[in-house]
Amino acid sequence: MSEQQPNPYTSDPAGQGGTPGQGDYKWGPGEASYGYPQPYPAAPAYQPTIGGAGIPAPVGHPAAPVGGAGFALGDITIAGDQIITPSGAMPLRGAMWNATDFSRTEEKIPPHAIVLAIVFFLFCLLGLLFLLMKEKTTTGYIQVTVTSGGRHHATMIPAADANTYHWVMSQLNHARALSM
Predict the structure, then answer these.
(1) Which residues, including other chains, have CB under 8 Å from residue 22's CB and lie 6 or more apart?
(2) Which of 95, 133, 135, 163 could disulfide-link to 113, CB 3.0 to 4.6 Å?
C-alpha cells in the first residue's frame, strides 16, 4: 500500500511531474459535447423572393403578391406570399396544410312533431305521420393546421352545418395549390 499507482487521467504521460491538482481529471461534463443539451439554434430569417425565381425582394419594399387576393381560414390569413397567424408570419411556399373533422351531425324528431302526432292521433290516425319529421343538427368544429418555416399553428372552425367540412377542404385545397 505504500506504493501508489499513477493517475491514468492526468495530462502528464509519465503521471509524475507537475504540481498536484494541475492537469488532473475533473469530474463533471465540462464543455458541452454530443449528447448534452445545446442551445436551440435560431430559425433562419425568411427571405421573400420575387415570383418564385429565387431573386430576393428588395429590402424596404413589400414582396409582390402571389396568387391574387388573400383569404382567411379561422385566424389563419394568406396574404401575398406569407401566412399570417397570431403566432407570427410564415412563408407560404412549402407550407403543409391539414384538416381534421371533429364535428358530428345528429338527426332527431323535433318536439313540435311529437306534440302534433299526439294531438292528431286523437282525431285521426294520420297524426303518426308527424313522427316522420326529422331535424338535423351539426355540432363541433374542424381543426385546421399549418406548418411552415419551422413553425406550427392550429385553429378551430365551428361547424355550422354538414357542409362546413367540404367548404373548409375546398379552401384548404386552394391554400395547398398556392403553397406549391
Answers:
(1) none
(2) 133
Give per-residue pLDDT as tens, 57-89. 555 444 444 544 578 888 888 988 889 888 888
Q: Give the distance from CA 169 to its chain's centroid.
A: 16
Alpha helices in 15-162 (DSSP H): 111-123
- Least Cα distance to 48 among 87, 86, 85, 79 occurs for 79
77: nearest Cα among 99, 105, 69, 160:
69
Chain centroid, CA 37 distance in Å: 25
Cα–Cα distance, 95 to 149 (Å, whole number): 8
Closest C-alpha among 160, 166, 178, 156 to residue 96: 178
CA gap 162, 48 in Å, rounded: 39
Stretches where the chain sits below pLDDT 70 are 1-69
pLDDT attached to residue 121: 80
Torsion of CA 108, 113, 115, 120, to 10 degrees: -140
Biggest CA pair distance of the chain: 117
